[in-house]
Amino acid sequence: MNDLEFQPRQVARKSLGNLWKAIFIAATLLGVLSLATLLYTIVDETFGLVALEFTTPPEELALVPNKAIEDHTSVELAAVVRQALEDGVGTLTPGIVSNYETLQAKPLEQWPKADILDMIYTDILEIEVQETFGLVESLFQKDRITIAVAEEYPDATLIFRSWMSGDFLTGDQSSLVLNAGIRSAIFGTLWTIIIAILFAFPIGVGAAIYLQEYAGDTRLNRFIQTNIYNLAGVPSIIYGMLGLALFVRALEPLTSGEMFGGVDPVTANGRTILSAGLTLGILILPVIIINAQEAFKAIPNSLRYSAYGVGATRWQMIWHHLLPASFDRVLTGTVFAVSRAIGETAPVVVIGASTFLTLDPTGPFSKFTVLPMQIYTWTARPEAGFKNAAGAAILILLILLVALNLSAILYRNHLRKTKEASS
Amino acid sequence: MSLPAIHVQLRKKHRPLESVIHGFLFFCAGFSILITTGIILTLGFDALRFFTNDGADLWSFFTGTVWEPQIERFGILPLLNATLMTSLIAMLVAGPVGLAIGIYLAEYANRKTSGILKPILEILAGIPTVVYGYFAVTAVTPWLQATLGVDLVEFYNVFSAGLVMGILIIPLIASMAEDALAAVPRSLRQAGYAMGATKLEVSLQITLPAAASGIVAALVLGLSRAIGETMIVALAAGAGSKFTFNPFQGAETMTGHIVRISGGDISYQSVDYDSLFAIALLLFFITLTLNFFSRKIIEHFREVYE
Question: Are the beta carbons of B89 and B165 closer than 8 angstroms?
Fold first, then answer.
């Protein structure tokens, strides 16, 4: 026997193989685990116990029996306020109320419910969120929390609260986290996304048709194609800077509505829905183009030749054959791009979404905020409760995105089925 | 019996609409060039205006270690350093993990497993970045502080932001690496097996080197993504520029600075405002260069097997 003997070392090599396989699986599980932890964190923050402190206990209010304070109507709440004034509950005086009424230019009874609630919370109950707890500890360690809260905040009441609720969804913005809602952010998101789609979809699909069906292999066309790939990789914040310089500042007469005489007196600058929509449109344009190109590439050439064979012009072929045949893929590609636009935050912050809005956006020239912006501002606030509200807003944002993508996939499958049935 | 006379016009019909449509479609495609020009012009114009200010020459911009607009000190290094630190930490997480997931999906996972895993990765990739930022400050930072101690880890710190950014980039690297590995011809693998190699040896010594260029491209693109990422660092990495190499301290990145300053009320005539465009221009060129190289590497790699 000499040293050159072949040594397969099968056992060692096999166990090394198994070790690495375990490492690969562990890495994959780590990815899955991070998604699970992320979702867990959001749900955990959205529901849970809240330690509230009142200067005036709510029992002293003349509420309708067996009805939670949030469920009262404006008129009922106004009655509660008037009764409190009469009884001298809280620090509110009739003078302050009539001052507010003059400011709002209408009597208490006609105020939006959220405004009256704000007044009751801040001026009568003087409610304050001291600490919030996650869902899991609220469920399994309630005793510990009760003891800890009793020690730290002797006057506090512990209630279980779902931060995501109907009132949260439809409520006004409010500086009081207990009373804050995201209605105007949802409207803002819808407005900006619609403008982004109206702008980016026709141009994006047009560009994809040109590049896929018309463009020859020239220097210019290759340059356009490379340029589109490069644009797809530009960080979103750069688009925000472009939007700030171009739409907000340079094109202010257009984006503020001045040119059309539709100036919102509150918004005499370019930080409007239109600016945000156009910026987001430019941002998703490369994604729409690339996805639509992929959709056209998937259509076999035989379809094109058979149209040309019966004498169709190029546009007739595109309009009557290529577009219907590739519509499902173009649609899913666009939904993917739109989902990205819905979640974009950085460009919207740079353009100047409002951190606080008292009015819903009414048109392209309104001031605005969007859901991700709301999440960002709430997450950045240190006071107790805002992270929970942000969690609830995230949950709604994610539900919106999932619903959008799911319906696109279902619609695509439906289209494919009818296509198969007809062919 | 005579045949009826048929008049066939064989000349191409004049169709002006076809040319109009052609022109419009060309405009749509050319619009992307307008966007690029717009970016370069708007960023360049304001950046130029910035460099005409006192204390803002190119030399001190690139070598200064203090970024304090209030006292007219504009050195980009603290911001650039924070950007590179978060990106490096992100790549240390996303590189190995993403690559391992890519190898697992391409070489080990059967159809059913990858049918479950891929949608999970897609969901992870589709979650808005502000949500990741939220995750960093509500879960990861408290966890870091609890395990490593509050004395060591500041609440706003570079490490937490980098870690979460890594999670964000994992799907990108995993799917690009998987594509690169899947593009390696079967014959190479089979040759390996015929020589008696184990699956690991085939994966690491044959497939991986063969797909190396695609994987490098994935890593470069991931790095570019990390450098341009904004919301995670804006929420978790801290406000205020700081020149530090300690990952457990807070330090503002380039993108984080732009978001914080432009989010407040800012006058269009101020140096602060112009300085943001100088930062953005630098950011644009860094990411553009990285993306360019990533694409070049991929193009090269396609030529080899097709």
Answer: yes
Does the complex come out with an ipTM higher than 0.95? no
- Element of type H or E holding A132: strand A128-132
Domain spans of chain A?
Answer: 47-162, 183-422
Closest C-alpha to A68, from A178, A199, A186, A192? A178
Mutant choice from B35, B141, B267 vs A, greatest count of A C-beta within 10 A: B35
Are both B50 and B178 inside the same structural domain?
no
How close A359 comes to chain B (CA, Å)?
20
Beta bridge partners of B68: B73
Interface check B33 vs A, CB under 8 A: yes
Q: Are A419 and A321 in contact (CB under 8 A)?
A: no
* DSSP letter assigned to residue A363: S
Cβ–Cβ of B204/A42 closer than 8 Å? no
Most A CBs within 10 A among B28, B233, B269, B287, hence the mutation to make, goes to B28
- Whether the CB of B53 is below 8 Å from some CB of chain A: the reply is no
Same domain (yes/no): B275, B240: yes
Output DSSP code: residue A157.
E
Distance from CA of A151 to the nearest CA of B (A): 23
Same domain, B152 and B26: no
By CB atoms closer than 10 A (0-12, 13-18, 19+), residue A396 is buried
Residue B111: is it exposed, middle or buried by C-beta count within 10 angstroms (0-12/13-18/19+)? Answer: exposed
**Nearest residue of chain B to residue A343 (CA atoms):** B128
Residue A313 DSSP code: -
CB atoms B104 and A24 under 8 Å:
yes
B-contacting residues in A 156-215 (Cβ below 8 Å):
202-207, 209-211, 214-215
Q: For A321-332, what is each residue's pLDDT tens digit?
A: 999 999 888 998
In a domain, B204, yes or no: yes
User: Chains A, B: CB contacts under 8 A, how many?
Assistant: 255
Which helix (H) or strand (E) segment holds residue A33: the answer is: helix A10-46
Nearest-CA neighbor of A349 among B1, B119, B35, B261? B261
Specify the number of domains making up chain B: 2
Residue B31 with chain A: CB contacts under 8 Å:
203, 207, 285
**Tokens at A228, concatenated:** 């589109």
Asked if residue B179 and residue B229 are part of one domain, the reply reads yes
B40 and B177 share one domain? no
Does residue A1 have a pLDDT over 60?
Answer: no
For residue B250, tell me if it sits in a domain. Answer: yes
A183-422: CATH topology:
MetI-like fold (1.10.3720)
Same domain? For B131 and B29 the reply is no
Mark whether B153 and B282 lie in a shared domain: yes
Q: Is residue B4 part of a domain?
A: no
CATH classification at residue B223? 1.10.3720.10
Taking the CB of residue B144, how many other CB atoms lie within 10 A of it?
Answer: 21
Domain assignment of residue B282, given as a range: 79-305
Which tens digits make up the pLDDT trace of A277-296? 999 999 999 999 999 999 99
Q: Does B220 touch chain A (CB under 8 A)?
A: no
With respect to residue B12, please indicate whether it lies within any of the assigned structural domains: no
Chain B contact for A25 (CB, 8 A cutoff): yes
Q: From first to last of the 306 residues of chain B, give the pLDDT tens digit.
A: 566 777 777 777 778 888 899 999 999 999 999 999 999 999 999 888 888 877 677 778 888 788 887 777 888 888 999 999 999 999 999 999 999 999 999 999 888 988 888 888 888 888 999 999 999 999 999 999 999 888 888 889 999 999 999 999 999 999 999 999 998 899 999 999 998 899 999 999 999 998 988 899 999 999 999 999 999 999 998 888 888 888 888 889 999 999 988 877 777 778 888 889 999 999 999 999 999 888 888 877 665 555
Q: Are residues B44 and B98 in the same domain?
A: no
